[in-house]
Write a structure and sequence with these properties.
mainly alpha, 85% helix, rod-shaped, transmembrane, membrane, transmembrane helix
């Protein structure tokens, strides 16, 4: 399968126009898939950073509450 879809292989160079179009569509789909995956990773990282920041701030509030609590 990899031989047929690899644009650099001789099989692809010697193939007809349909093979070129097929390979182009496959590479385009792969690029879009990689773009989507990277976008989701960025969103996930941002979400995790926000959650960590929120936990950090909650922890600070908790510490201040404990330290300033009049016993």
């Amino acid at each position: 399968m990899y031989i047929f879809l690899n644009p650099l292989s001789n099989n692809f160079k010697n193939s007809n126009i349909l093979g070129h179009v097929f390979g182009f569509i496959i590479s385009l789909k792969m690029n879009l898939f990689q773009l989507l995956v990277s976008f989701e990773l960025v969103v996930l990282i941002l979400f995790l950073m926000l959650k960590i920041l929120q936990m950090h701030l909650d922890f600070h509030h908790f510490i201040h509450f404990v330290l300033e609590y009049p016993y």
